[in-house]
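Bench notes, bay 3.
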Amino acid sequence: MNVYDFDGTVYKGDSSVDLCGFVMRRHPEALRHLPAFAAAAVQKKAGRITTRALKEVFFRFLADVPDMEQELGLFWQSHAQKIMPWYLECRQPTDVIISASPEFLLLPVCRKLGTGMLIASQVDAHSGRFLGENCKGAEKVRRFREVYPDAEIGRFYSDSVSDLPMAQLAQEAFLIRKGCPVAWDIRKGAQV
């Protein structure tokens, strides 16, 4: 099986940030959450709050979406073209996408792509509250092993060295650089 990070890997950019911009353009009342997010970003930079806490403040804009299912449909109609061409060429029905982005956000596009499994952060689509840990770094390994206790990963792809714990599980690992996968020497934590 091949396993992929999503944002910056399968998707060009950050889908959560893109959804936020999309929602704020369509529902300007969501802009009211920007000052709280700016304050939380300062607290995060100072080490006073966790990434999870910052993301919960970020996702407060979801409260201003009257119909999330419809909103996601419209979002993916306009943003599915940001799926990386290299991924479209090599995707397989056994692929696993594992991401720190919310599951509710990625599920529609993963269904459309025919992805075999999605493992992502559990976030309430109406409040932005996390229902579990942020699926990043070592948490990705824990969540992957919950679903696939003994599975071997053939290839793992990511745009971030924070995914080193997942890369170490794979027979081969690749970093995405300038929109293309390059071999990742996990012993050095960088590309070959």
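Next record in the batch:
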Amino acid sequence: MFEYIPAIPIGVVLAFTIGPVFFTVLETSISKGVRAAIFLDIGVVFSDIVFFGIAFFGTSSLLSSIEENTSAWYFLGGVLLATYGGVSLIKILQEKNKKEEKEGANIDDAPNFLKLATKGFLLNIINVVVLFYWVGIILYFGPQFDMEKYKITLFFVVIVATYFCVDLGKIYLAQQLKNRLTDNVIKIIKIVVNLFILICGVFLLFKGMV
């Protein structure tokens, strides 16, 4: 069992890796509540499962493709992230401030959990850097497990379970701030989060063009 211990710090690091998902999960917890953020995170987990499957079953050919077409991969990811961030930003800026009967943050009474899970899935799946991450994990730790499927899969499960548990703590702490935030502050947070996603996309686009 000691061979699976490295999966725990990897999961913790992954949970605190600054990226589009990190800020979106926190923003969702503040603006829509704990359950909404959890469903968003569940969508992220499912996308990681997809990425892991792609990386594990197609490591050799995928690695060759990444090495030969790194710029194209970055460019694709940049286009998708920039489009997502840009469209979301425009929608937020076009929203009219709605008066809420509740004091404090604007929490949706009935958020669409399936839509949120889908949002989390898509936000993570369009980030090609995440795919590179799982390919790297398999290439580094796979040989240590003699590339045995069940051992590598268990290692992956421990990583995901760790970062999901850490995310639950982040979600809870972020949601505690809601009573201290006004509607305008919530809107600013949304703008900043989606602006960050847009910048990440532009950065990947730049890497793909140089």
